[in-house]
Amino acid sequence: MKIATWNVNSIKARLPRVLEWLNGFQPDVALLQETKSQDDTFPALEIGELGYNVEVAGQKTYNGVAILSKSPLEVELTALPGDDKDDHARYIEALVTGKKGSVRVASIYLPNGNPTRDENGKDSEKFRYKLKWMERLIAHTGTLLQTEDAIVLGGDYNICPTDADVYNPAGFADDALCRPESRGRFRRLMYLGLTDAFRAFNTAPHLYSYWDYQRGAWQKDEGLRIDHLLLSPQAADRLKACGVDKTPRAKEKPSDHTPVWCELAD
């Protein structure tokens, strides 16, 4: 089972790239983020014609997550538990039927959190929201792990776990992607027993999944590794491979992110 995560930065703007990639790469499951589309305007018909079942948690203009699966899927959640007042479309979770039973997958669009400081130099509301959201994710993941399911939590985490995951550590030291508070919560999430699928196979520094549109970042390989596939022990036991597919980022009118994928033995 090939599972990929991709922040598409607007499904409407990127639909030709997404259809091209789905048709060529042929993931069994694709976890999409920042679709910037409401449920009723998501291009489910076009994607469905390629053989995918589609489930969406959408929001107009901002955020938005989706799960595409060649196999049947059953949605479990369309929001991260822990705050009924949070109306941002940032989380969707489903069970996907596989040959070895179901795999629980989630598409996650974790808050960016920038700017981290307010006018008084204190932590901004956006940064505090990011940290609270991560606390909720840690709590929910702990609950999920009690099921002993094969779980893949994929998405744009807006976290560079270490300085090896950012092209300019000094320049990003006070960025929400690299602040110690963000990284500390990411480590707490990992310490629950998760495996970073990419790092299980790729230990070299400065391998990225995101390149800004500005300042020739793509051409100069000035990137960030902020898109992650985190696996429960039951999924990690089946992990065969993981990588970054840089092909879509080099295309015309690309997303600033590129897909990260892993393969589980079926």
Structure description:
With 266 residues, the protein is an alpha+beta fold. The chain has a single domain, classed as Endonuclease/exonuclease/phosphatase (Deoxyribonuclease I, Chain A). It is built from seven helices and 14 strands. It has a six-stranded mixed sheet. A six-stranded mixed sheet has the order 5-6-7-8-12-9. Strands 10-11 form a two-stranded antiparallel sheet. Strand 1 (2-7), helix 1 and strand 2 form a beta-alpha-beta unit. The protein starts with a strand and ends with a strand.
Question: In brief, what are we looking at here?
Answer:
With 266 residues, the chain is of the alpha+beta class. It has seven helices and 14 strands. A hairpin with a 7-residue loop joins β3 and β4.
Keywords:
six-stranded mixed sheet, alpha+beta, 7 helices, Deoxyribonuclease I, Chain A, 266 residues
